[in-house]
Structures are given as C-alpha cells and as structure tokens.
Amino acid sequence: MNKNDLGKKLAFASADIFGGGSFNIINFLYPGFLAITVGISPYWIGVIVLLARVWDAITDPLMGHISDRTESRLGKRRLYLVIASPLVLLSMYLLFFPFSFSSTALRVVAVLLSYLVFTTVQTSVMIPYYSLSSEISSDYQKRASYNSYRLGFSIFSSILCVAVPGIIIGLFEDDAVGYQVMSLSFGLLFGLSVLMTGLFAREEIQTPKVKSKLSIKELVKPLNLKPFRQYLGMFLVLQLSMAVMSGLFFFYIDFYVVKSETALGYSSIVGLISAALMFSMQIVALPVYIKMIQKKGKTFAYRFGGIFWIITALLIMFIPADVNPVIIYLLAAFMGFGISGPGLVPHTMYGDVVDAGQLKFNDRLDGQMSGFTNFINKIAQAVGLAFVMFLIGLAGFKEKPLGGDPILSQPDSALLMIRLIMSLTPLIFMSIGIYISYKYKIDALKQKEITLAINAPSEVKEALISEL
C-alpha cells in the first residue's frame, strides 16, 4: 500500500472515532450516570431513550434526504461533517451535565432535552458519514479494506472510551465534576476527528444531487430493495445485541464478578481490563475476517463470527460470582474475536447495497439509505437499553437516591436477570441475523455484474434485480 492510499484510509476512518467512541460511552456509562449520579430510575431511563428514538424517526431520514440533495465544494457529505464538528463538543458536555433539580420531573425533562441535542448532532455527522462509506471507492475489495480501517478506528476508540472515561471521572472526588471534565475531553477529541474526515477524505464516486421532492414515499423508497432490507436486518440484530451487552457489562462486572470488593466499597479494574481485551481482540481479528471475506465471502464471515459469539456468551451463565478475573479476561477476549466478524461485515456490505439501489432506482440514494441505517442503529440502542433497564428494574435493581449513599450491592434477583440477558441475547438475535445472511445474494461476482449493469438497458437491470 502506498502512502497516498494509507492517508486516504486514515482520513476516511477518522470520523468513526466519534461513531464508535460515543456509542460505547453511551452504552457503557450513560445508564450508570443517569441512575447513580443524576438519580433517575431505570424506568425513566427507558422512557428517555425511547422518546429520543421517536425524534430520530424524523431527523435521520430527513438528514439523508437533505444530504442526497446537496451540492457544495466539499461534496454532498463532507460539508455536514465540517459544520457539525464544533457542535459535537457542546452536545457531549450537555449529555453528561449532572442536572440536580429537586424535582424528578425536571431532571427527566432536562436529561431528555440534552439527549435530543446530542442525537441531533450525531445524526448530522453519521448520516453523511455512512453515505461516504459507499462513495469512498467503487471496488468491492477496496471498499471492504476502507471499511476495515474505519472499524479499526471505531474499535480503538471504543477501547479508549471504556477505559479512559472511568479513569478521568475517578480523579475527582465529586463524580459530577468528573463526568463534566470527561465529556469535554472526549467532545474535543470527537469534534476534531469528525473535522479531519470532513476536510481530508476524498470520495471516488461523485453523483449529481437527487432531484425528487421530499415525501414519505420518497423517504421509504429504499425499503423496496430486498438486499437493503436484508442488510438492515443483519445490522439491526448486531447493534441490538451489542447495545444490550454493553449496557449491562459494568453492572455485571461490578455487582457480580467482583461483588465482594464492590460491597466493601473498593473499586476494581477488572471491568476496564475485560472491556479493553474484548475490543482489542476485535481489532486483532479484523485481518482474519478480511481474509475470510476474500476466500469465503462476507456472509460466511458474518455467520462464523456470530456463532463464535453465541457460544462464548452462553458461558456467562456458568461463571460463579467472585470468579478468578483471568476467566473473565479469557471470555472477553474470545467474545471480542466473535463480535469482530458480524461487526465488520455490515459496514463492508453497505456500498454493495447502494450499488444495487442505483441499479433499481436509477439514483444513488446513499443519504436515504444511511438515514435508515443510522436510525436502525439508534433504535437498536434505544430498544436494547430501554428493555433491559425495564427488566432489571422489574427484577429489583436499585438506583442511587438523590443525595443518598453509593449503591454497593444489588439483589440476587437483579443479578440473575442481568446474567440471563447477557447470556441469551446473542443467541436470540444473532441467530436471526445468521438466518438472514443465507438469503443475501450479493457477492463479489454479483457486485461486478451490478456495476456493469447500471448503465445497461432496463430489461437487463430487471433480470439482475430479480436475482437478488
């Protein structure tokens, strides 16, 4: 690889420092921040994230529609990354602002509004960025390579955003101050990473702006494409599984794996080391899955990793409390190897699906498709977090009362619920994704046929579309 190619890949991948990092800060830290620091019950946390997804149902497809119809010196997508980059810092600060109103209703409203600001900024970045991933190259294997760099940046950011925020927060006696310093630090990092992609990434595929008018029919048009629906299904179950697992991860470690230390008021680094190992193994496994994609195809890599993940997750139910941390470290590493496959594959599929959409619709609807993709991503996070918060609340999980003492233990019923959810979630959802993967037909040969057929007569296009 020459230096020019490497520079292009690094510039393109930079923005997913925000994508992957913010995803993990929210899933790993935000529920605990709201429950333990702000003093909001798991039930209200579930309501907040679900209401935010209703807002996303409007903003995500709308942002996709807008970016498809944009013309600028920076292209259709990168303009919005440049504009949104300073807003990333502001929205991160508001997201972790420790509202201390005496009224629960006021705290809930304030948290909801700050969360809506953050999700709106996230939409203005990630919708154009998803679209850019299909325009960065027209070659089947090169697109996979670009997106493997992107995922590598995302996972590396995930490691930072699991390990470092806790260290920053722990430097301050007052958790509320620690969360503010942490949010400003990572908000600055995220904003700069988005700006780098906006300024220096260079898309290979450049198409005229889409001229159709805004309507519900136009916004949902991508759903008429079968490969896009299949891609969404595989992506949805992946994101849902990851959101559920990461949302409960530190609860599981702190209150079950090291429950004796937690009960005595001691802090533990077992969770941080486990998370770092899990994400590090995802990076280490990427070349394995890239080679697997080249030899066996994308759907094979998705299924292989999904099955590996399911098996390792089932082992959670057999691990006793206060187990030797080495067992947890090994489990986390093996689980990370499994997650890497289905984590990579949908990113590499997206450009192929957009090519199929251009064949069917005679327009390249990157923005509208990325709008649905990002919306599905957020829906998965919301539904996953809301549902598990509801279940563990039902099982007796205790949140910190406003101004009360720290929570050092949880009832056995809540711990059993956490273990059941973490063990069975990949089995239930990834099995669905594996089933869908057998229906997906776009491989390297088919993608080449699609590219050649885009400018072919309509009867050739229709025949190829019918095969997908």
Describe the structure.
The chain has 468 residues and is mainly α. It has one domain (10-200, 218-467): MFS general substrate transporter like domains (Growth Hormone, Chain: A). The chain is built from 17 helices and no strands. It has helices at 3-13, 16-38, 42-68, 78-95, 104-135, 140-170, 175-200, 216-219, 226-257, 259-263, 270-296, 298-314, 325-361, 366-394, 412-437, 444-453, 458-467. Helix 4 runs antiparallel to helix 7 (175-200) and helix 6 (140-170) packs antiparallel against helix 7 (175-200). The model has no long low-confidence stretch (mean pLDDT 85).
Number of domains: 1
The average pLDDT score comes to 85
List SSEs in N-to-C order.
HHHHHHHHHHHHHHHHH
Low-pLDDT runs: none
Features:
single chain, 468 residues, mainly alpha, Growth Hormone, Chain: A, 17 helices, 78% helix
List the helices and strands and how they pair.
Blueprint: H1 3-13, H2 16-38, H3 42-68, H4 78-95, H5 104-135, H6 140-170, H7 175-200, H8 216-219, H9 226-257, H10 259-263, H11 270-296, H12 298-314, H13 325-361, H14 366-394, H15 412-437, H16 444-453, H17 458-467
Helix pairs in contact: 1-6, 2-6, 2-7, 2-9, 3-5, 3-14, 4-5, 4-7, 5-13, 5-14, 6-7, 6-11, 6-13, 9-13, 9-14, 9-15, 11-12, 11-13, 12-13, 12-15, 13-16, 14-15
